[in-house]
Amino acid sequence: MKRDAIGTPIARQTLIGQRVRKPDAPEKATGKTRYINDMVLPQMLTAKVLFAGRPHARIVRIATDAAEKLPGVHAVLTGKDAAGLKFGFSRDNVALKDKVRCEHDEVAAVAAETEEIARRALELIEVEYEDLPGVFSPEAGAREGAPLIHDNFPGNRSLHFEFKHGDLAAAEAASDFVADSVFRPHHVTHCCMGTSCAIADFDHKGKLTIWTQTQYPYNYKMDLAPALGMDPGDIRVIQPPVGGAFGSKLDVYPYEPIAALLAKKTGRPVKVTFTREEEFKASPTRQAAIIHMRTGCTCDGVLTFRTADVVLDNGAYTSWGPTIPVIMMRTTSGHYRVPVVDFKAQAIYTNNPYAGSFRGYGNVQTTYATAQQMDMLADMVDMDPLDFHLKNAQKSGEYTPQKSFLRECALAECLETAAKASDYSRKRREYAARRAEPGRYKKGIGLASSIHNAGGAKIHKSDGIGTILKVDDYARVTVITGASEIGQGIDAVVTLIVAEELGVPLEHVTIVNNDSDIAPWDVGVHASRTTFIAGNGTRRAARKAKAQILAAAGKMLGEAAETLELRGGFVVRDACGTPLIELERLLRRMHFQDEPELVMVTDYYEPKSEPEGAAHVSDHSAAYSHAVHVAEITVDTLTGEIKVDRITVAQDVGRIINRMGLEGQIEGGIAIGLGYALSENMRLVDGMLTNPSFRDYKLVTAPEMPPLELHFIETHCAEGPYGAKGISELPTIVIAPAIANALYNACGVRIFNPPMSPETVARAIHEARH
Amino acid sequence: MKRDAIGTPIARQTLIGQRVRKPDAPEKATGKTRYINDMVLPQMLTAKVLFAGRPHARIVRIATDAAEKLPGVHAVLTGKDAAGLKFGFSRDNVALKDKVRCEHDEVAAVAAETEEIARRALELIEVEYEDLPGVFSPEAGAREGAPLIHDNFPGNRSLHFEFKHGDLAAAEAASDFVADSVFRPHHVTHCCMGTSCAIADFDHKGKLTIWTQTQYPYNYKMDLAPALGMDPGDIRVIQPPVGGAFGSKLDVYPYEPIAALLAKKTGRPVKVTFTREEEFKASPTRQAAIIHMRTGCTCDGVLTFRTADVVLDNGAYTSWGPTIPVIMMRTTSGHYRVPVVDFKAQAIYTNNPYAGSFRGYGNVQTTYATAQQMDMLADMVDMDPLDFHLKNAQKSGEYTPQKSFLRECALAECLETAAKASDYSRKRREYAARRAEPGRYKKGIGLASSIHNAGGAKIHKSDGIGTILKVDDYARVTVITGASEIGQGIDAVVTLIVAEELGVPLEHVTIVNNDSDIAPWDVGVHASRTTFIAGNGTRRAARKAKAQILAAAGKMLGEAAETLELRGGFVVRDACGTPLIELERLLRRMHFQDEPELVMVTDYYEPKSEPEGAAHVSDHSAAYSHAVHVAEITVDTLTGEIKVDRITVAQDVGRIINRMGLEGQIEGGIAIGLGYALSENMRLVDGMLTNPSFRDYKLVTAPEMPPLELHFIETHCAEGPYGAKGISELPTIVIAPAIANALYNACGVRIFNPPMSPETVARAIHEARH
């Protein structure tokens, strides 16, 4: 941006779709980033929590005197200190318990000068328990006479959902084939590399600042406040860099109010950090469920109906996990053109760990069912699954029975692209033909797809975002945005969009976010919404700034503003690219004139989406998207081990904004989906987790990632920023049933109780053979 | 703000003029505040600077090998590492020197793991000097053949200023009396309780973040950039809480680029902190000068002319100190109605320490002269000084010869108020009459006044401020303001004004400032401007927010917006105070409606003031103000010790905003002025400071503060926020000559070379008697 560049035309170029590095990447790669777990505040105390370590019990007596007397201990809290401070989706949780309902129930907490002292203090707390009979499955919980987990929830009934559409009896009668199966998706957990951590501190006016990993800072205040008996307005939420979240931080969990209660009592900042074992035991899970699904079709392969009867293992408390039927029913009713739908779901309290939200949010479980039943039906009608899918695929402009409006629908294109790129049909026939041949290793190929919201979801009263944008005298841009960066890459997207609109280098954009006192409102990172919503908000704010700048330039230069553009750090003539004035010089002239004009704009963007409503009929997202995965695997029929050889992805992304970020999200999402499909499993025995470590709980890590071939379908979403859609959940959702279908292709077996671990697969193959 | 309060009318009340606690006070009083000096960043290195310790020398050789090899040392820099990176007002300074021009010249700097290692590394640096003959007074520096301090400043001439108005010869001829004296104001320093400190860190895109005590973050970037060879846009300035500034942080000083150069070289954050001794030696001073002043009057007490010939001891480099003639000439020309003026000033380089800006900025020195000459002339014409002052006092609507427009002038009212409250005239006669009586202790009373800008000063291209204000769903207000809090209390003022305008509790206002990437532009804390400028900016932003809120309320409630007001957390009918809707409920309704509306406003306020210009004729401040101090003292004629018994202050404050903050500023300002008058003195011997400690350099501390009686005159400044004027410098300016005049009243002696220390006063009394 040298002055002497004036005169050389600057060509029109776009950053949209380019590969842009995350601004936080170099600091993270070189160890400079200070994660919340690294943070130390002056005078900070360390807290430790005493967990019950048993699934269901009455607390007979609790003695904390010895702990309180230990030098260096500043406070010991027990259930009485949180009495009445109910919080959570059903107001059934409390920071410190007076009764034990699951293994990780918080019985006491200590704040001390050091972690070592806090640990020793925990050992000095005496608790006398009276164990109670437990409930370890939803079936058991629903049974007449089952032990009651919450006195005010008779029959252990938590939540229920229902949606019906069309004449089921008629549809059943018209069906030539029906796939009827019971799927039992399992408990997994997020396994964030940064364990749960919160730091709380009160100032002298009683205002709480909480440093937390939360993904939704604004509603978080509302959710945290009742756990502390506070006004939400008196809470400031700061989100330092976090080592993963994936939906696990979309609610308040007890360690957060515990930190705050201890900070209040001690008058000092208090930090709680989980060990890895605590993280496994005490952080939320993906919802386990029993899904009884039936899907019908005619003999010529037209879907006739789909029903799902879902029973969720609610666990001991109600976080967002049991609300996943909201999305489960969208998939049940909208995954392919299903004319008749009957969906019901109920959640039953158990003494198991409880679930929060998790990337894919119910759709991982449901697609595991729907996508396998599509494969089963294709088999029944003896069609190539690709043809069966294509026959039932919606087209642009269709509505689902719940009134999701598929304005731009690329399901068929995704199917054709992935199938063609992987040579799906030929391989599938070939592998199926070889199924009965002798040999230990069998190859299989499987195709699966799903639908997901791709423009947020109006679950809360607003799905919008606030943005404040200022441009300084050196043409450096600061964007104060409600969008939270939790590692997913939104800062890169915001940076790219500002650079695109204002013609400044990427390095000249600074993002200010993750502090609820500074940044304006946003509903948080979830529902594949952030690039869509914050992208729109950023673009609108940047365009307001541009309009102001070009108007001033036009006035100063005596040119019509609409003939001007910002490019390469200059105001240029749009048509020819001739630079007229350096942007930063213009900004200084605007600033240092008699009537100074600084560029500071604000915006609030609300997507065009409709609240879910009690009837569940609404266009609840501003966009929807599809993805198709083709998985190619080799099965060791002796050990049951599945090796994934290659994954071909075709996903409707609307339009690519940051290609590198998009690829990263797809890869990361598939890694989570692969773990879910193949190896991750919380092994619970009577509510107690038996494998709380990375030795016994197997994640898919980088060296185990198969080759991925990514195809991005650009449908140019009318409402999305530059046409983009949200993209981050589908990769996690689609891979498991693709592998399940490949397993069937290879060996003729299906696994209804994932994960498809070697043991489970080997048993299934053995049983099928004998 | 309970809902059931609906119905009970809420009376109109104002916070303007109330006593409001500084929001940062409790944290400071309880030790919770983390000052910059307390800050520790991850991986931070500590730097130490090697000072020359001699006033003028050539560096023959410098060897750093041994220091570099010391384990724990990460970088050693010398003059070659800063070669060519000139900075400062006259671009005559550099972070690390290749020639020594004053005792505290920075010869080398080290960054190491610990302070101890850095200290040891300094000891290992070998420097061979060739001492040069020095220049230790401006007279010596101006002399033909004097040693040259900077090769490119021949004759050691630094800056010069001139202003003439009217026919001096005619005025002299018309004068019956002329006071003609030479004043020699001395070197003092700011003595901030928090010593100089900076932390610098570069990110991976080469952007520098500097945590600093600076008072002017935005122009600071521009001033720091050349010292580093950087683009100012690549600098982020964060101002953590500081232990005092008082003008000492209105420029870049070498330790700041040194921290940045070391950070760049090491790739780690680097912190520099001065010891108290280093602070005395290496931080800026108040400008020492020689002021030859002449003031004439007629025999009936009408001023005829004033001339000042000022020679400033520039010191070794040019910071803002030598620019004080800009203000000196305003006082020379505008302190009382002076029809003819002849002002000239020049600054001469010496090998003494150099001056920055300091509260009172040249007016402390000049008022010490003007206010004593007024007393001398009153004596010559045998008038009560009060009458003499009143006779020459300007009235509202007058212009000074430099065209300062005294729109609201309360000089006469200040004089009368202070004189009456202290019984000045009677006591003065009585003490003068007792002067010749025997007795060791003599009482005296002295009156002095001054004029100062009270609405900022257009020294830079803009004297404005940017403000961003948002109101959240709980009616909590965040103000993102360019105004820096450096302990002076602006956060309390901003808070008060927001609460006043929006009818919310003070506790519900959060200020976000002191970070140049977040807050919008402001010219910094100086020239008694912040309450005036930021007060106006805040009020304008708050009023925009109010207009938006009341418009929305009017629409929702079906009322005319102009009949509504915000009071006590409610929208009320202005006339009767009847609450109509809780503000926070209204805000949520605005947010959660189909077309959401969030309250986020921006403002840039530029005062109506004119650039100084080369001719020095302009209305350079948006307001002017006067203060009168009456000092009552007891002089121990044996020891020369002056005990101040009482100070009566009358100051035109325009309108009181925060009474407690105002009182604090007046008290603090007088404490600094008292030290200047009585005890503080940098004792320089051949350019070397001989008293760099609080044992040998005597501050006035709390127990030594005399009783103060404060009278605030409210002139309701048309341009000021609610009528307020800036107030913070006059207290420091006026007290010394009031004491000097009291000393004359008590003993008949005048001190032309302050401070009026016991030794100086005793000598003067002795000489007068013998």
Automatic annotation (TrEMBL), chains A, B:
Coiled coil: none annotated. It comes from the Bacteria. Residues 30-133 form the Aldehyde oxidase/xanthine dehydrogenase a/b hammerhead domain. One of its GO terms (molecular function) is oxidoreductase activity. This is Xanthine dehydrogenase family protein molybdopterin-binding subunit. It comes from Ramlibacter lithotrophicus.
